[in-house]
Amino acid sequence: xxxxxxxxxxxxxxxxxxxxxxxxxxxxxxxxxxxxxxxxxxxxxxxxxxxxxxxxxxxxxxxxxxxxxxxxxxxxxxxxxxxxxxxxxxxxxxxxxxxxxxxxxxxxxxxxxxxxxxxxxxxxxxxxxxxxxxxxxxxxxxxxxxxxxxxxxxxxxxxxxxxxxxxxxxxxxxxxxxxxxxxxxxxxxxxxxxxxxxxxxxxxxxxxxxxxxxxxxxx
Length: 219
Hints:
The structure is a single chain. It is built from five helices and eleven strands, in the order ββαββαβββαββββαα. Helix content is about 30%, strand content about 30%. It has helices at about 20-35, 65-70, 110-125, 190-195, 200-215, and strands at about 1-5, 10-15, 40-45, 50-55, 75-80, 85-90, 90-100, 140-145, 145-155, 160-165, 190. The radius of gyration is 16 Å and the shape is globular. It has a single domain (about 1-215), classed as BirA Bifunctional Protein, domain 2, CATH 3.30.930. It is of the alpha/beta class. The model is unreliable at about 1-5 (pLDDT under 50).
């Protein structure tokens, strides 16, 4: 496991991992963060193919259902985050902040935290010469009419888990066709590769995300 330790934020690059393994790690770390046994942590990972959804997801948004999604070669999990169904997999950079909101620039304000996560992605896109935008009433980051990054979090005792997913290559895009991603059926999904004409280096993208996260949310 590669680690980048600095004061105020512990960044852990996990490489490519199954969802269940990292989900369990999140649950362990948030308990440790609540007890103040660890400092703020940012997990970054590429997952094996997986569909996840929150407890309030409309079953119709799961396409032909969990069994059909598994038949595609993906794991499936209902999780404790907010938000609808989404996909994670190779070619997508997923970030899980395990942080105490009180110590972030947003303070104990979940709305500001979500807007902060969006701002992180917007700054990363700007570094590539792309204009990321918010759409009123929707969570995530968009370029034109297509979503490039999805967000879904859980906060307990002011500590966070789950987070954001940025489509870096085109590899994740076909998987979204089997569900109604984030419960939105009238907009598409896109990636850095689609927008730039070639796939950026994942390590380079990861470093940009870490830099933007520090700029926006770390006091």
